[in-house]
Amino acid sequence: MLGIVLAAAKLGEELAARAGLPAFVGAILAGIALGRAGLGLVSPEELERLGLVLSLGINFTLFLAGVEELTNPRLFKPSGREAAAAAALLGVSTALVASYVVLKGAAAPEAAVAYALAVSMVSLGPLMKLLTERGVGEVELTLLRVGLMVELAAIVLFNSVFKGFDPVLLVETAAVAAAILLFGRTLLSRTLYRVERYVAAREAPFALIVALVIMAGYIAEALGFNAAVTALLLGVFASDYLARRPAYLERIRAFTFGFLEPLFFAGVGLYATLPGVGELADAAAMLGFLVASRLAAAALIGVRGRDQLALLAKGGIDAAMLMSLLQLGLISPSLYTAGITVLVAATVASALHAHGLKPAPELWRVRIADLPLDHAAVYYREPAIHAARIVARKSAAVVVDEDYKPVGYVVAEDLVEVDPRVLEKLPTFIFSRPEVPVVSKDELVAEVLSDPAMVHEPIIAVVNDDGTLIGTITPRDLLEQIMSVSAPRRGSGSGRAHHRQAGSA
């Protein structure tokens, strides 16, 4: 059954992505279709057996959210208006949703507040993905700072009320969150560096990080925190170290995004019941409250038009909070279903913010021809002084024949010791190296980077199907493209670049 749920979740993610929606919406809908709200293929007993995997999915998903979403220093410098907007957004929405739930008698007051916080919060990860599709300007940074403040405030408040309000726990949660954001990353990094130095077992730091994430639930119990909140803070804790150990981070990402995250979001859907008229009415009312709070916040920060929709972004943290409340018996399946309906509807509405914007593909899936190509090329019969001028600027140049097909290349060391007067008289092919690495314009970046020989070449010729040169690229150019990608990579392609060596002139 685990395999069926995973396959359905990944299929749902693919369909959602093709529809221009965040992928996790597809996984939730796949879970709804498989569970008691749909086909009933996953029985309550089987869902209980899946509980451990779903818990791990929550922990690792939120751990990565902490690593990747809460570490940008530009997000921690809000203006007074932005702070007021965040307070208005969370305060208005939470008050309205909690009052609605209490008046209906659907939950106890403290559980209603916790539920309202989960429903009302903004999820920074999806918000960041929505906004970075068009680049990050001042408006986008304003929205991100407001979203971050709402998310952090909701996390701290939720942790203080989900088992009954405890003012001491509120202060402790805020203090721990602040300490981790300010100092915790350095402390854990030092610990992991010491493990690297003194522990002989292979990849011991990686194992320690995974063990901490797995044990997040037990850590939460010891600290009196919610497990999802603990996993998120652990991610912030480990972010500095993982930034310096990208190989470890890529392994965690691959395992999480390929296996645990889709299962977690499918589990979110599996717990839902078939929404009736009552649940749909509740969801519609709460969605109205969310929209009203977003309009109030947007008015405070001067955001107009469809940019206001971006603040409806929802995601894994709020879903994990709703699931925690359900599993603790603090809310009914009916109220949980209404909350998940709000989550999906708000996510779809927020995606309208990016309507008409073509999502940028992951760099690894981009064709070489779609990158900014250079044209560091010289005709093989031209005087070598022309090649020298190109090489002085570009470090290498491709040599082409009469049909503009690559036949070799020259680098600085081939020309630097030759008198310029000689270079003016001799043709370029005299100094040309006989082989040049060549890739097709349809090669993917991942295929080129997967070939160790290719990335050590000084220059690469990019050709059409008939072998005609259309541009050149260097490993330095590829590195610049990699470093310019602001969104976290979720994986890379595989395979080997099928390159050939062109003959000498």
Residue windows where pLDDT falls under 50 for at least 5 positions: 356-360, 486-505
What's the total helix number?
A: 22
Number of domains: 2
Structural class: mainly alpha
Q: What's the shape?
A: elongated
CA gyration radius, whole angstroms: 27 Å
Query: What's the order of the H and E elements?
Result: HHHHHHHHHHHHHHHHEHEEHHEHHEEHE
Query: Which CATH architecture of the largest domain would you pick?
Result: Up-down Bundle
Could you describe the 3D structure shown?
The chain is built from 22 helices and seven strands. It has 505 residues and is mainly α. The protein folds into two domains: 2-354, Na+/H+ antiporter like fold (Up-down Bundle), CATH 1.20.1530; 363-501, CBS-domain. Strands 6-5-4-7 form a four-stranded mixed sheet. Strands 1-2-3 form a three-stranded mixed sheet. A hairpin with a 5-residue loop joins strand 5 (460-463) and strand 6. Helix 5 packs across helix 8 (138-161). The radius of gyration is 27 Å and the shape is elongated. The model is unreliable at 356-360 and 486-505 (pLDDT under 50).
